[in-house]
Design brief:
The structure is a homodimer. By secondary structure, chain A is an alpha+beta fold. The first copy, chain A, has one domain: HIT-like (HIT family, subunit A), CATH 3.30.428.10. Helices cover about 30% and strands about 15% of the residues of chain A. A five-stranded antiparallel beta sheet of chain A has the order 1-2-3-5-4, with helices on both faces. The longest helix of chain A is centred in the last third of the chain and has 28 residues. The N and C termini of chain A lie far apart (about 60 Å).
């Protein structure tokens, strides 16, 4: 289902049991983001999925038709068609992890600019009806004259299939950067002087 | 500064004291989203701003160059250039309020499909360097043959200035829908049977 967007086709209808994101979530139990499994199994689904985060509520993995190197998806573990279908705790978790994944993505790719995009419904170019945030690195292409192209985000022919060796390496780097950032923030929180009691 | 995006111009540099979003935040103290001021002052800034949410950490208002009717922005009250500059509590608040604003926007506009977009850096089409999420309703335009156009999200000539009377009415409707949803969720939480103690 997760193919190029074709506006001439009817909007997709996917039953929960056929949802590709539910399949990825079901194959990957939660792990601690600060201590990810290493080596990490990337052969738990067909096609392979490259998971970088898996919590009780959320899961994040590389897009199999990336718009750029590092294109990541973050979704709820439960099948929620649109953002308005998620619970408030899930929405808050999504908000927190988008920040963390953004920071890890900048470090892992070396690309300092990126878009966060979340599409709800066919008229908004949602293809897989299980809510997900896209994180899309944007290399500086001003010099190459391809500037405008970069904003055709969901058109035909913009996307190439993920290279599996490259993806495996990138996913590993992302899991390590996520863990590293969490350790740094933990250290920072611990090194602050405790608040004086009044 | 908040004008059409022109890729031939250099990336914007704005000092914090000149930031238009900081000016809106400074003019609008926090109010309770479940009990918003009514009537609401929309003349606190020049140009007028149409604020729908103002908390200690966040502020949301109508985009003055909307891509569609209802185009909303949600940003941190503090000046944070990119999403990676926000604190984790701010990021979690952003996540929670994007869900609430989405639900209010669907009710207020009657448009069931929408995009959430957050741009970081000039290469990602960020214009105002104070991080913000866009919420952009997407009316069903498949029938009109303008389908592809809707995905040119930040090009020149796509945007018209906000009509102030219409904006005032829409902002009021959004504040009321936000309050209504919060009351419904409060009622729902209270009507659940309390958990049995083990």
């Amino acid at each position: 289902m997760h193919t190029s967007f074709d506006p001439s086709l009817p909007p997709p209808t996917i039953r929960e049991e056929d949802c590709p994101f539910c399949a990825i979530a079901a194959a990957h139990p939660p792990f601690s983001p600060i201590d990810p499994p290493n080596p990490f199994p990337s052969n738990l689904t067909a096609p392979q999925s490259f998971v970088v985060l898996s919590t009780p509520a959320l899961i994040a993995f590389l897009d199999i038709l990336p718009l750029s190197h590092g294109h990541l998806l973050l979704c709820t573990r439960a099948h929620r068609p649109k953002l308005t279908d998620v619970t408030n705790p899930e929405a808050r978790d999504l908000g927190g992890y988008i920040r963390l994944l953004s920071a890890a993505l900048v470090r892992a790719t070396g690309i300092a600019d990126w878009n966060v995009v979340q599409n709800n419904g066919a008229a908004a170019a949602q293809v897989v009806p299980h809510m997900h945030y896209h994180l899309i690195p944007r290399p500086e292409i001003r010099a190459s004259g391809r500037y405008r192209e970069s904003f055709t985000m969901f058109g035909r022919g913009q996307r190439e299939e993920l290279d599996e060796d490259e993806a495996e390496h990138l996913a590993e780097e992302l899991r390590q950067q996520i863990a590293e950032i969490l350790r740094e923030e933990q250290d920072e929180a611990e090194s602050k002087p405790p608040k004086q009691k009044l």
